[in-house]
From TrEMBL:
This is Methylated-DNA--protein-cysteine methyltransferase. NCBIfam families: ogt. Involved in the cellular defense against the biological effects of O6-methylguanine (O6-MeG) and O4-methylthymine (O4-MeT) in DNA. Repairs the methylated nucleobase in DNA by stoichiometrically transferring the methyl group to a cysteine residue in the enzyme. This is a suicide reaction: the enzyme is irreversibly inactivated. Residues 75-153 form the Methylated-DNA-[protein]-cysteine S-methyltransferase DNA binding domain. The active site is at 126 (nucleophile). It is an enzyme of class 2 (transferase). GO terms for cellular component: cytoplasm.
Length: 164
């Protein structure tokens, strides 16, 4: 079966959702694309559950997504993305903390690369990964979007929402 997609408006800009065989394979922000990713035909109705959960998330009523996911990635990437899904709403982890959970502090850069390859942003919350000192570093959707997502989840900790 070939992939299908839809585009949703959101408080952080347009989101392109891609699915194959009923599982979400990508959530792309703005013009962000992963090389070689096929979007397939546009089928808005195929994404009702994802659209509803994203709407609830942006309204502050959803803290964990329950959607079938099928991200394509290397085994290490898949391990990192599974750890990302365990980071609780409104909290952050550093690249070094995730590396330790995977077996060694020497994995920090590899964790960063896997985080950058995450094809299902927001749902697989790579925006919750920060530098060791708590600084906002690297985000495929842009640092302003990362700040906006963190602000949504914990406004007291992440100050004013700037861009979105």
């Amino acid at each position: 079966m070939s992939p299908t997609h839809t585009v949703l408006d959101s408080p952080v800009g347009p989101l392109t959702l891609v699915a194959e065989e009923g599982a979400l394979t990508a959530l792309l922000m703005g013009r962000h694309r992963h090389p070689g990713m096929a979007l397939g035909a546009r089928r808005d109705g195929d994404f009702a559950a994802a659209a509803e959960q994203l709407e609830d998330y942006f309204a502050g009523g959803l803290t964990r997504f329950e959607l079938p996911l099928a991200p394509a990635g290397r085994p290490f990437d898949l391990r990192v993305w599974a750890l990302l899904r365990e980071i609780p709403y409104g909290t952050t982890r550093s690249y070094a903390e995730l590396a330790r959970e995977l077996g060694g502090t020497g994995f920090s850069q590899a964790v960063g690369r896997a985080n950058g390859r995450n094809p299902i942003g927001i749902v697989v919350p790579c925006h919750r990964v920060v530098g060791t000192d708590g600084s906002l570093t690297g985000y495929a959707g842009g640092l302003e979007r990362k700040r906006a997502l963190l602000h949504l989840e914990d406004p007291a900790r992440f100050g004013e929402q700037l861009l979105f």
